[in-house]
Amino acid sequence: MHEEIVESLLMLLMILPGALLVIAVGGWWIGGVALAPIENITRIVEEITASGLDRRIPSGETEDEIGRLIRVLNDMIGRLESSFQQAARFSSDASHQLKTPLTILQNEVDGALKSGEFSGEQIPVLLHLGEEIQRLKSIVESLLVLSRSDAGNLHLENERLDYGQLINELVEDTRILGGTQDITVDSHLAESVEVVGDESLLRQAILNLLDNAVRFNQPHGKIRCGLEREGTWAVLTIFNTGPGIQRHHHDHIFERFYRVFGDQQTHPKGFGLGLSLAFEITKAHNGRIELIRSDPDGTEFQLRLPAV
User: Fold this and answer.
1) Residue 264's Cα: distance from chain center in Å?
2) What separation, in Å, do the N-terminal and C-terminal C-alpha atoms of the chain show?
3) pTM tops 0.85, yes or no
4) Which helix H or strand E contains 175, and what residues bound it?
5) pLDDT by residue (tens digit) across 209-267?
6) Can you list the positions of beta strands (E) in 158-216?
7) Do 207 and 170 touch, CB atoms closer than 8 A?
8) What does the alpha-carbon distance between residue 185 and residue 182 come to, in Å, rounded to a whole number?
9) Beta strand 298-306 pairing with 233-240
10) HSE-CB for 216 with a 13 A CA cutoff
11) Number of CB atoms found within 10 A of residue 225's CB
12) Reduced to 3 states, what is the DSSP secondary structure of residue 245?
C-alpha cells in the first residue's frame, strides 16, 4: 500500500509540471485571442487626432460586447467630428465676415485723419481707434488662419525660398521695432539655405517670434538670430535677453490665447495668438518649433523646417 502511494505521488509530480505548462500556454493563447480586439481598438483610438476624426474602428459583423463597444465608440467619434467641424466652420466664417467691416472702419478712420477737419484733441482719439481696429484685424486674421488649419484647409502657396534672405529682411524690420528700447539685434545667417513654403505665412510665423523677442525684452537688451543647416533641416534660433518664462508655463505657451505675462499695462499689445499661430504654420510646413531654454539670462526658441 505504501509503495502504491509513493508511485502515485511520483507520477503526479511528473505529470504536474507538464499540466501546468499546458494550462499556462492555453491561458496565454486564450487571453491573447480574447484581448486582440481590445488592443486593436486601443491602437486605432490612440491614432485618432483632431485632424483625423473621419477615421472609424472596423466593426466587422460581431454582435457581442466588443461589437457593441466599437459601435458606441464610432458613434462618439462621429459626434465629435460633427461638433468639431461646426466649430471650425463658425470660426472661419465669423473671421471672414468680420474682415470686411473692420476694413471699412479702418478706411473711415484713415480718411477722417487725412481730411484735416478735426481738432487737435480729436486726432489722438482717431489714432487710438485706428490702432484698436488694426489690433482687431490682426486677431481676426490670426483666427482665420488657425480655423483653416484646424479644418485642414490651410492652403499653402509653396515656392522655393532663399530662407536666409527672408530672415534677414525680417531682422532689419526687428531692428526698427527694437530701436525705441535701444535693443541690439545681431544675426548670423548661413548662406545658401533654401526651403519650400508659403512666403507670406512663414514671414508671419518668424515675425511673431521676433516681435515677441522685442516686446518681452528688457531695455537696452539683445536679440540674437541664427540660421544654420543641420543635415536635412534649416534651423532658425531666436534668443532674447528677456526676464525668462517660468517653468510651469512651458507646456502651455503654444496654446491659443495663453498669456505668460498677463499684465495688460506692461504688455498691452499681446493677445496670446502669436506663438500658437507660428506653431500651426510651422506644422503645416512639416517643421517644428520649440522652446529650447528660458531662464533669467534669456529665452531661446528654435524653428526647424525641411531644407531643400
Assistant:
1) 24
2) 89
3) no
4) helix 163-178
5) 999 999 889 888 999 999 999 999 999 999 999 888 888 888 888 888 888 765 544 44
6) 158-162, 184-189, 194-198
7) yes
8) 10
9) antiparallel
10) 28
11) 23
12) coil
